[in-house]
Amino acid sequence: MSIDAFELAESVGVTGSASRIDAREKRLINCHQVDVNQLMPLKYHWAWEHYINGCANHWMPTEVPMNKDIEIWRSNQLTADERIVILRNLGFFSTAESLVGNNLVLAIFKHVTNAECRQYLLRQAFEEAVHTHTFLYVVESLGLDQGEIFNMYREVPAIARKDAFEMELTREVLDPDFTTASFDGAQTFLKNLIGYYLIMEGIFFYTGFVMILSFHRRNLMKGIGEQFQYILRDESIHLNFGIDLINGVKAENPEIWTADFKQRMIERVREAVELEIAYAKDCLPNGVLGLNAGLFRDYVQHIADRRLERIGLPVQYGSPNPFSWMSETMDIPKEKNFFETRVTEYQTGGALQWD
Question: Could you tell me if residue 24 is inside a domain?
Fold first, then answer.
């Protein structure tokens, strides 16, 4: 090994037993051993498990046939109100998925200093790209106006308000002087994690899942519905990883989990709930079969309570779940045999053969 190479290796802690990383030295944030992704020894086994689960759920949108959806969209089977529901959700998700991806790559990854968590973040970033690809694929398949769909985040106030609510968090962490080493910085970073994992992926996304999957249950727009099933499966892992990361940062930095900060996070969730209820009203001005804005008020409040519980905050609403079928949708693996066009398994596997 050359002197320059030896000095480089020594600087990143890969030479000599004295330079080896002890798992006890690893931290979720504010650990300086991040020159390389030093996975071993694993400390946060939950992060690695989420990574493995994410890899097992690999899929691509172009594997889903859209012929029936195209036929239905071009026919008179859908009412004007049903078309609004589909268009609004395509408009919201097409932007929201890219916002999550940008926040992951530009803001979160830099400040999460644990290798196994970074490994999962890389996987999640790819999945966000797949989700964005999905909405482009749907828009192109149905022959929709791309400008209309992809500009809804500017032109539809109910969508614009939700996106602005999240983009503020990314801007804070992207400030050139931002650091998690300070008390305020660590709290700001935790606010970002709560805003994107708990609220964006855990609350904002789930209303859209209900709306689109309700069509799938009626044997309408099944191609879009199947893709949303796959996205839902991915998002459930994103949510679980995010909650583990939030709770881990809290445990390692208990001084930032103050009574004032907890109250501010509760208020932020309550604000998000009202934004989502307004979005549901915008998507469902007259209601469609089995869906109306009143039911979504209960649903959004119900899932907000579940999210708050999981990070140790008190429930706020006590509302019932009007869409109990969503639990079944999330619990059953949504995996598809594309040759039989029925839901079976979509976990992928491969075997190498050597001559």
Answer: no
If one counts every other C-beta atom within 10 angstroms of the C-beta of residue 332, the result is 11
Averaged pLDDT score across all residues of the chain: 86
Respond yes or no on whether the N-terminal peptide bond of residue 322 is cis (omega within 30° of 0). no
| CA pair distance 333, 145, nearest whole angstrom | 33
Full domain range(s) for residue 115: 39-334
pLDDT at 178 over 60: yes
Residue 111 lies in a domain: yes
Single-letter residue type at 89:
N
Give 13: exposed, middle or buried? Use CB within 10 Å, 0-12, 13-18, 19+.
middle
Question: Does the annotation mark 137 as catalytic?
Answer: yes
Residue 153 CA to residue 149 CA, distance in Å, equals: 9
Domain count, the chain: 1
The values of phi and psi at residue 335, to 5°, are -130, 135
Answer yes or no: is 13 within a domain: no
> Looking at per-residue confidence, does 8 or 253 come out higher?
253
- Report the SS3 class of residue 344: strand
Query: For residue 129, what are the β-bridge partners?
Result: none
At 33 the pLDDT is 56
End-to-end CA distance of the chain: 35
Give the model's pLDDT for residue 288.
Answer: 85
Kindly report the CATH number assigned to the domain that includes residue 319.
Answer: 1.10.620.20
Distance, in Å, from the CA atom of 304 to the CA atom of 269, rounded to the nearest integer, reads 7
Any residues with CB less than 8 A from the CB of 249 and at least 6 apart, and which?
Answer: 28, 29, 186, 189, 190, 193
> How large a percentage of the chain has pLDDT more than 90?
74
Asked whether 25 and 31 are in contact (CB, 8 A), the reply is yes
Look at the block and give the residue holding tokens 């999210």. 307
Task: Report the predicted TM-score, pTM, of the whole model to 2 decimal places.
Answer: 0.85
Answer yes or no: is 343 within a domain.
no
Is residue 86 pLDDT above 70, yes or no? yes
Residue tagged active-site, from 137, 197, 299, 346 = 137
Which sign, positive or negative, has the C-alpha torsion 230, 231, 236, 237? positive
